[in-house]
Amino acid sequence: MAAHYLGGDAATTGRPKALLLRGDAVSPEERKLAELLTVLGVSWQVVHIGEIAGLCAEGPEDSTERFCVLTSASSVALLVEGALNPDDALPEWMIKAESVYVYGFTAEPASQRLLRFFTGDPTAKVRYVRGKQVFLSVSRDFPAICGPMSGIQFESRSPEKQPVFDLNVRRESLHSILNSNHGHLFVSVKCRGAHLFLSSSANVIDVATPCSKYFDVRENACNTVPIVMYGRWAFGVGEASEIGACLIVDDPLLKPRYGFLRYQEALRLMDEHNFATTVAFIPWNWRRTDTRTVHLFRQRPDRLSLCIHGCDHTAKEFAERSTEILNKRINVAAHRMRLFGTRTQLRSDGVMLFPQGAFSESAARALKLNGFVATANTEVAPTHQDENKTTVGDLFGRTIMKYASFPMFTRRYLAHGVENFAFDGLLGKPCLIAAHHDDFAGDARILLHVIAKLNSLNWKLRWCSLGDAISRCCSIRNGSDSFPFVEMYGSSLVYKNSQGSLEGTIFKKEEEDWQHVQAVTVNGLSVDYLHHGGHLRFEAMIPPNQSAEVRILYCAGPNLASNEESINYRAKAVLRRYLSEFRDNYLSRHAYLHQGALRIKEALRL
Length: 606
Ligand SMILES: [Zn+2]
What we know:
- By secondary structure, this protein is of the alpha/beta class.
- The protein folds into four domains: 10-235, Rossmann fold; 243-398 and 413-459, Glycoside hydrolase/deacetylase (TIM Barrel); 474-554; 567-604.
- It is built from 16 helices and 31 strands.
- Helix 7 (217-235) packs parallel to helix 12 (418-426), helix 10 crosses helix 11 (361-369) and helix 15 (567-587) packs antiparallel against helix 16.
- The chain binds zinc ion (ZN).
- The site of zinc ion has 5 residues, from loops.
């Protein structure tokens, strides 16, 4: 019966199976919907419209197999056409399904008839948005569906001929989930024993589209938000008991003041407004620290932490492709951070933040093999275009794993808007905010405004260090025989067995460099592992409600002796650092001089 089947987890995850109902020809939107579900981790099976009735009648009466159906309005119209008489019952499969997601309504008479039948509203209409922008409101009444997007409002680009529903939503059986100033985009309806979700949009986002910039929900809300919300509710997409959050400030030294950032004052703001900051620390600065500021970091690890930001912070130093040069840079950075640790007793998270966001695939591999846990980046594609493998689908995962299966967590600027952070939360991604010292200018008003909004959303936000947010990030599935199945991303994971399971936990990590894996440890003890289907798999016994630290150890291969960099390179690195600090500490409040400094840097190609 199955025309196609992917994944194979649905029957074993305790979640319903997704049935994609189709006619004879497969439309591009149906193909895109299937690809989107795969990216979201939902197992699906295609069912022809001629098969669905027989398929649902086949199973034994007490069959416990759970399923949801996703279909276009034009496909389902063919099946309920006979039922449009008000006294007729719906097809049995619609009632047996836990829910049915119907998308792609048009102003054609058949489509409008279907809408009126499903909603019970005899005046319901489909019409098209006029203009290029829509103002969207997400309902507050369905927190389980809308997650962190509950109750938010934002403007989004409207595709050409975007359909919306003109409905009377005062009916008890009908609820609007996503509304706009032109009409409803996504509604929930109880119809004769069936639970239906109707999405007006005909378009489905194409997750295979290559991309070189961050995903912006304000550009794509109509064709992404309804299906991701439905996926969350029906199949547990993005399920996370809490979301790690962190403000990451690039470049500061550990001195009482860096530009507009005054650590003592910033700490007061963090306590008052509830957030935490990780400083992206440049290893070149390892010796240039102030004792009082270091003391502040030691006293308040709950609010202040460090990650590693490049090595010398020269232009594109991690866009380098040579493994030998990268290994050298990483060794120098690690050596400086060890010296820094000895001086200050402070530890940095094993997370790299690339200067200017510039990276190569070789850099991702070199960092992984040299013991780094992950990277966080505002850029989503490598500097060299010929290396770019990032697609829209990669940005819908918790992290990008395309580059040497080394996780790259995306971070966002404040200007991306709360709606983008909330959409990331809907997908289960950590809330990572990119900032600079000047975000603390003007009493940090904009920063605090965004943080207050983030803290008010419908999610359990846990402010912590960047390393902590990343090392606790995983996806948990309930496997067969109630075995939890944990997908990890970074080379270390702190995992808590909150399922209360007494059985072993199976872990899985995407890994393309398995021949470099030296050992896998759980709480410091080696465990057996195997490599299968591009993933490392291993098992560990973790008592209920206990945490365990899982680590994957790699061998880095030959490390070249740390040759001294050329005098020219060293001189440039020194000049760059001092010029940058001069800009941040003195010029940033004087726009004219600031532009001058930028021109000097440009001229010197720093
Ligand atoms: Zn920087």
